[in-house]
Amino acid sequence: MGIRLTALYIFVAILLVYAWKDWFKSLCGLILLMAVIEHEDMPKSMFGTQGLNVWNVLFFGIFPAWLAVR
């Protein structure tokens, strides 16, 4: 695993934890992630599962935090 992927996973983990404090700022981080989602170095799957990528993991982490506040 490269340094870029490690930094990406740390960024996503921080946003996942912070989503329970302020889901809107984590959502803004998710929107920033949209800018690089189609880059060739971006992982398209995690753990061999098609469609399980960092964007989906972050979205499905922010969504319950939003529901809890709502």
Q: How would you portray this structure in words?
A:
- With 70 residues, the chain is mainly alpha-helical.
- The chain has one domain (3-69).
- Helices cover 63% and strands 6% of the residues.
- It is built from three helices and two strands.
- It has a two-stranded antiparallel sheet with strand order 1-2.
- A hairpin with a 2-residue loop joins strand 1 and strand 2 (49-50).
- Helix 1 packs parallel to helix 3 (54-69) and helix 2 runs antiparallel to helix 3.
- The longest helix is centred in the N-terminal third of the chain and has 16 residues, at 3-18.
- The protein is globular, with a radius of gyration of 12 Å.
- The chain starts with a helix and ends with a helix.
What fraction strand?
5-15%
| Count of structural domains | 1
Q: From the alpha carbons, calculate the radius of gyration and give it in angstroms.
A: 12 Å
Overall morphology: globular
- Tell me how many strands there are: 2
Biggest sheet, in brief?
2 strands, antiparallel
Helix count from the secondary structure assignment: 3
Q: SSE string, helix = H, strand = E?
A: HHEEH
List the strand order in the largest sheet.
1-2
Mean pLDDT equals 88
Give the low-pLDDT segments. none
Q: What is the straight-line distance between the termini?
A: 38 Å
Helix content: 55-70%
Structural class: mainly alpha
Overview features:
mainly alpha, two-stranded antiparallel sheet, 63% helix, 3 helices, single chain, 70 residues
Summarize the structure.
This protein is 63% helix and 6% strand. It is mainly α. The termini are far apart.
